[in-house]
Amino acid sequence: MQTIIKSPSECTEIKISTFEKLTEDGGQVVSYILREKIERTQKLVFIWNGDVCVAIGTLKNPASSYKNKLFKAAGVSEKSSLYSFEIGYIYVTVNGVGNKLMETVLEANYDVITFATTGDSNGAKQHSFPKFGFKKLGNSYNNESGEYLLGLFGNES
Question: What is the pTM of this model?
């Protein structure tokens, strides 16, 4: 397996397209302006098994307004300014690489405290976050469409 960490500007069109397709395959995002969002991220992480990308993740540069909205919804507005990056677009297509993916994304974060969100129904992520130093911040809140609850997690010291 090969692990790659690159800024979007360092990626080929094939890598960006692969990341975009796998993000859509993961079903957790709306594809509207997805390419733009991917290209604005800090770092993209890929895990390749030969010629097949089997896992992706990113270190996002969230807009202050977006970050403030999430932290307010979780009831922890005062913590918003502590966080610079967000972990996102985590998607794994094969078993056994999820921990390696999280380790690699965290390696790319320059030891800056980082936040992430996940659906309350995503037991795997909810269970794995504490292994990487993340704790739930505040209360669960409705996603934008009101279809499900999200949890906010942070790895502050």
Answer: 0.86
